[in-house]
TrEMBL record:
It comes from Candidatus Desulfatibia vada. Keywords: Ligase. PANTHER family: CAPSULAR POLYSACCHARIDE BIOSYNTHESIS PROTEIN. This is Phenylacetate--CoA ligase family protein. InterPro entries: ANL_N_sf, CapK_Type1_Caps_Biosynth. GO terms for molecular function: ligase activity. The lineage of its organism: Bacteria, Pseudomonadati, Thermodesulfobacteriota, Desulfobacteria, Desulfobacterales.
Length: 460
C-alpha cells in the first residue's frame, strides 16, 4: 500500500502535493463534486424530457454569475455601472460590449476575482493557432463540470464501468518512450473523463502508424475521443489495409477541429460505430455536443449562456452564420462575460432555453483575399461547397502570401487524379477569382499541440 502511494505521487509537481496535503483542498473538492453531481442529474433529466423548459434556470445561472462578477471583479463593477446593467433581471445585458483576448490581456488584473483561491485555480492557455495565444487562470470547478458533460456523453454512447476510453490528441511523448517506438502515454488510472491512454498526433507518420494500430487493437478502447484529422488518418489506414476491428467501439467523440463529411464517413466505416461531436473552448464557457446523426449541436444551458451574433453584435436568425459569444457560469477565478470565441456557427433555434446550432464551421478570421484585396470567407469557398475531390484527398492545407493567389498543399489519396486538381482550381477561380498553385506533399505539419491548421494566412 505504501509503495502504491509513493508511486502515485512521486511524479506529481510540488504545487499538487501542497494541495492534496491541505484539508481545505479536500473540503473544497467535496463541494465541487456535489455541484458536479447536481449538474449531472440535470443533464439526464434534460435528455429524457425534451419538452422541459430550462429558460428560467439558465437566466438564474447567468444572473448569479453577473452578480458575482459585479461584486468581486473591478473590471465588471465599472462596466456594469457604465452600461446600467441590472444583475437581477438582466436589463441591458445585451448592451454590454463584447470581451475578447485583447481586453483580457490588457485588463487581466481587474478581471480576476478578489476571492480567487489558489486551492481552486489553475493556469490555462489557448493553443495560439489563431495567432492570439492567451494565458489566464481558471476555476477547477469549471473544468470539473465540463468533465461531467463528457461523462454524460459517454453514457449516451453506451459507456459502462470498466470500458476503456482512448484520447487522440497532441500529447507530448517523452523521448525515452519515443526511442522505444512508443507514441502514446498512460494518463491515469481512470478513463472518465479524459481517457486512460492518450495517442499523440505529433509523431504519426507512414512508418509509425502500424505501431499505433497494433497498440489500439491490443488496448481495445470502447470509446475514442480526439482530433478529427488524427482519427481520420488512423481510419484511412484501417480501410486501405482492410484491417478488421475485433472489438466493439461504442462511439467516437470528435473535438477541437472542424471535420469534413468525408472524414466522418471514413471514421464511421473503419470503426463501424456512431460519431458524436463536442465543442468547447479553453476559456471554459461553453459545452456543445451532438447526440444523433443530424449532428446538430445543443449548447448546454447548465454550463454557459450562448449567443450567436453578427458583425454588428445582433443575434442572427435561423440558418444564418454568426460568431459564438459565450458567458461561462463556473469560472469564478476570471469570469468571461460575453466573450468572443472567434468560432462561427450556423444558428438553428433556441428551444426551451437550449441554443441549437446546425453546424460549427470555422474561425472568424479565416478569410482569403482576392486580387482586389477583398475578403472572402473560407466557409463560403470550402465548407459551403461540395467538392468531389474531397474523397480522394487524405489531407490538404491552404496558405496565402499574395492577394489573388493561394497555395494548396495536398496529400493525395490513391484515387486522386488531375480531374480533382482541376475541380479545386475551377472552384476557387469561379467563386472568388483566386488562382491556385497545387503542391503535392507526403505530409502536412501540425501545430505544436498536434492540431491540424487548415489555413495559414500570411496577409495582414
Amino acid at each position: 500500500m505504501i509503495k502504491f502511494i509513493i508511486d502515485k505521487f512521486k511524479s506529481k509537481p510540488l504545487w499538487y502535493l501542497e494541495r492534496v496535503m491541505n484539508p481545505l483542498w479536500w473540503m473544497h473538492k467535496i463541494k465541487i463534486n456535489i455541484t458536479a453531481n447536481k449538474i449531472a442529474s440535470l443533464l439526464y433529466v434534460m435528455h429524457e424530457n425534451k419538452s422541459k423548459d430550462w429558460s428560467i434556470y439558465r437566466d438564474q445561472q447567468l444572473s448569479a454569475m453577473l452578480k458575482y462578477a459585479y461584486q468581486h471583479c473591478p473590471y465588471y463593477e465599472i462596466l456594469f455601472e457604465k452600461y446600467d446593467v441590472d444583475i437581477n433581471n438582466l436589463t441591458n445585458f445585451e448592451n454590454l460590449p463584447l470581451l475578447d483576448k485583447t481586453i483580457v490581456r490588457k485588463h487581466k488584473k481587474e478581471l480576476i476575482s478578489c476571492k480567487t483561491n489558489w486551492l481552486d485555480t489553475y493556469t490555462m492557455n489557448t493553443g495560439g493557432s489563431t495567432g492570439e495565444p492567451l494565458e489566464f487562470i481558471a476555476s477547477q470547478l469549471a473544468a470539473t463540470i465540463f468533465g461531467t458533460h463528457l461523462k454524460f456523453l459517454y453514457k449516451i454512447m453506451g459507456y459502462r464501468n470498466g470500458d476503456k476510453i482512448a484520447s487522440f490528441d497532441g500529447s507530448s511523448i517523452p523521448e525515452k518512450l519515443r526511442f522505444n517506438n512508443i507514441y502514446w502515454i498512460k494518463t491515469g488510472i481512470r478513463d472518465i473523463p479524459w481517457g486512460s491512454v492518450a495517442y499523440s498526433s505529433l509523431y504519426l507518420t507512414s512508418k509509425t502508424i502500424p505501431l499505433y494500430i497494433d497498440h489500439i487493437l491490443n488496448f481495445k478502447p470502447s470509446i475514442l475521443r480526439g482530433y478529427p484529422s488524427f482519427i481520420s488518418d488512423i481510419a484511412n489506414y484501417i480501410i486501405e489495409n482492410k484491417i478488421s476491428i475485433p472489438f466493439q467501439v461504442k462511439g467516437i467523440l470528435l473535438t477541437s477541429e472542424n471535420a469534413f463529411d468525408w472524414q466522418v464517413e471514413n471514421i464511421k466505416k473503419a470503426f463501424n460505430t456512431n460519431i458524436y461531436f463536442e465543442y468547447g473552448i479553453s476559456e471554459v464557457c461553453v459545452c456543445g455536443y451532438t447526440v444523433d446523426n443530424t449532428y446538430e449541436y445543443a449548447c448546454s444551458p447548465f454550463y454557459g449562456f450562448t449567443e450567436i451574433l453578427d458583425t454588428n453584435g445582433r443575434h442572427v436568425k435561423k440558418n444564418e452564420i454568426g460568431e459564438i459569444v459565450v458567458t461561462g457560469y463556473f469560472n469564478y477565478a476570471l469570469p468571461f462575460i460575453r466573450y468572443k470565441t472567434g468560432d462561427l456557427a450556423v444558428y438553428n433555434v433556441q428551444e426551451n432555453g437550449i441554443v441549437k446550432l446546425r453546424k460549427i464551421i470555422g474561425r472568424t478570421q479565416d478569410f482569403i483575399y482576392t486580387i482586389d484585396k477583398e475578403k472572402v470567407a473560407l466557409t463560403a469557398i470550402i465548407f459551403g461547397q461540395h467538392y468531389r475531390a474531397f474523397k480522394n484527398i487524405e489531407r490538404w492545407q491552404l496558405e496565402q502570401n499574395i492577394p489573388g493567389e493561394i497555395i494548396v498543399r495536398i496529400v493525395k489519396g490513391q484515387t486522386f487524379s488531375n480531374t480533382d486538381e482541376q475541380e479545386i482550381k475551377s472552384k476557387f477561380k469561379t467563386i472568388c477569382n483566386v488562382n491556385v498553385d497545387c503542391e503535392y506533399v507526403d505530409c502536412i505539419s501540425l501545430t505544436n499541440r498536434g492540431k491540424f491548421k487548415f489555413l495559414i494566412q500570411n496577409i495582414n
